[in-house]
Design brief:
By secondary structure, the protein is of the alpha/beta class. It has helices spanning 4-7, 43-46, 53-62, 65-77, 89-102, 119-125, 138-143, 154-163, 175-182, 206-215, 236-245, 259-276, and strands spanning 27-30, 33-36, 38-41, 82-86, 107-111, 133-136, 146-147, 150-151, 167-171, 191-194, 220-223, 249-255. The chain has one domain: TIM Barrel (Alpha-Beta Barrel), CATH 3.20.20. The longest helix is centred in the last third of the chain and has 18 residues, at 259-276.
């Protein structure tokens, strides 16, 4: 697998995040890309709340790119400079607004979305934003045609991402599919998958995903750690720690709907990191 310096195209990357930007949050390495162990999620800012159609309609109406950017700006103020989400015009606009207002760059771990035939178009949309990693969307990998134990044609789309100068990853909500890709020799640098206490969106079972991520040697970014709002009241920290403690989890993506949620949840995660690595926080 080529080193990052050999594959990243200047058309897609402006400048890397400064070490000072990452100081409060530990980082992992994905093919030379420094990825914070905490990324901002976007489902509840773009209208995929996993609760109701009415709430999704309200989210789409209320959360303009500027309002989304305010949430991102507060994240950056508190040391969280990465976001994970689809190649979506409103999200890209919000990232650009937040970067301009904050005077700092965000890391965008992007995913495909929509119809696979639009992959090339979506990769072109990433020009000008700092998105060195692009993942196949989970809805794609969950339903991808399988023949003789192989995901038919997946290699082609991973190659499109690689040829665009980006590091390919794969999102998945199915432990059996994740295992199939992990053991299949595909050009996948990292996995993105749900990890939460109640098994929400962990298909076909919570155990299958925990087993798959516990065996892979690739980095795993856990999504839906609070089960899209289905967590126990007053126990956010307990739920987040549970997700981070699972074998194989390298980083976590956590969604926020307001600056107040940003403050509360990032404080919880920083507390978990301080407990896990007290030597990094000694004065």
């Amino acid at each position: 697998m080529p080193a990052r310096s050999e594959i990243l195209s200047p058309a897609f990357v402006t400048f890397p995040l400064r070490e000072s930007q990452l100081a409060d949050i530990p980082i992992i390495d994905i093919e030379g890309v420094k990825v914070p162990k905490l990324l901002t999620g976007i489902n509840s800012l773009l209208g995929w709340s996993h609760t109701s159609y009415g709430r999704d309609r309200w989210i789409v109406r209320y959360y303009t790119a500027r309002r989304i950017a305010r949430v991102f700006e507060r994240c950056m103020e508190l040391g969280v400079h990465g976001v994970l989400g689809p190649v979506w015009p409103r999200l890209i606009e919000a990232i650009r607004i937040a970067e301009k207002e904050a005077g700092e760059e965000m890391l965008f771990v992007s995913t495909t979305i929509g119809d696979p035939k639009d992959t090339k178009k979506e990769l072109d949309m990433l020009r000008g934003v700092h998105s060195p990693i692009c993942c196949i969307h989970g809805a794609w990998s969950d339903s991808w045609p399988v023949k003789d134990g192989r995901l038919v044609g997946l290699d082609r789309y991973l190659m499109m991402i690689r040829d665009a100068g980006l590091v390919p990853g794969l999102a998945c909500h199915n432990g059996d599919r994740l295992k199939m890709v992990d053991e299949g020799g595909y050009d996948v640098a990292a996995f993105v998958t749900p990890v939460n206490k109640v098994g929400f969106y962990m298909n076909p079972t919570q155990r299958s995903i925990l087993r798959a991520i516990g065996r892979t040697k690739r980095p795993v970014i856990a999504i839906k750690p609070l089960a899209s709002g289905r967590f126990d009241e007053g126990k956010i920290g307990e739920w987040l720690k549970w997700a981070l403690d699972q074998k194989g989890v390298s980083a976590m993506c956590l969604g926020f709907m307001s600056e107040e949620e940003v403050e509360e949840d990032i404080a919880c995660v920083k507390g978990i990191f301080r407990t896990a690595h007290p030597e990094r926080h000694r004065s």
